[in-house]
């Protein structure tokens, strides 16, 4: 059984992100008349590192920093506010690579393949076969799915602000690259925002739907054909050379690829070994053999993903237990309850109370802040 009162002690060196992801944080906190330095110090983030922008910091500290800062500043839309200070330049070399793309499709491909250059836990994926009731069945829609998949997430309960920030920056970068050809249709959030929904609608200039299975931007499929008439062929040659030298043999691990494929299709019948193997252009036996070599199995990856997401949904969303069960691919709420009891030694309701209490204690103990977390 997981003890939610203790910080998990596994090696977290791989869960790192560039400090440029916090550009604008100090400005926004000062606007709220909150001194950001004690909070930065609490999460071991140096102000000099923020100014440098290219220093690696622990992703879990960034997440916890934003959640606590949002509460301390009473700023429910902190992530959105910070995003207004960020543009494609925060992505560093990845930003240069993206700007060398000749089509919108290539922008998404570069971002999907190389987002690890900005943060090892960041994921961006394009789904051209959208199955959602947000649109008519025959609508020509694509979804750009944004996610954060930490290898160590047992002491991370809420990711509202960092998901808002990442999705907002993705939106701003795509709009910048596409200009007046960019047209966002809808936005989905996996959590229930603490800020009024109208704030999100004004920011994205589109309908925002909460309590969904993942964070995503929905665009018309025609956008994939947008051509960028860049005349900077020198930059393209430099980028091609860079990619060839640095990442010719780079492939995300088979575990990460399987986890991401399951994540996208978790609530549908496609989240099974045969379908995922087909998505990865592999035979199911070959997939299982590679997972065995990595010391895991398809079932273990899927179960761990469900466990992580259950905790996140309980804290961040206002979904009913039956809705959470459906989103996680359980046939019945009772099946979810049994799984939760097996994973955490308590019912979903008890787990939610424990998680909220643990988060509140963790975030307030060092600063003496006595406000309890509200969901």
From TrEMBL:
This entry carries the following GO cellular component terms, namely:
cytosol
Q: Does the keyword Transmembrane helix apply?
A: no
Record keyword Nucleotide-binding present: no
Looking at the record, the residues that make up the HTH araC/xylS-type domain are: 256-354
Cross-referenced SUPFAM superfamilies, in alphabetical order? Homeodomain-like
Q: Mind telling me what this protein is named?
A: AraC family transcriptional regulator
Instruction: Give the species this sequence originates from.
Output: Acinetobacter tandoii
Offer an example of a GO molecular function term for this protein. transcription cis-regulatory region binding
Q: Which SMART domains match?
A: HTH_ARAC (SM00342)
Q: Which Gene3D superfamilies match?
A: Homeodomain-like
The record's keywords, sorted A to Z, are: DNA-binding, Transcription, Transcription regulation
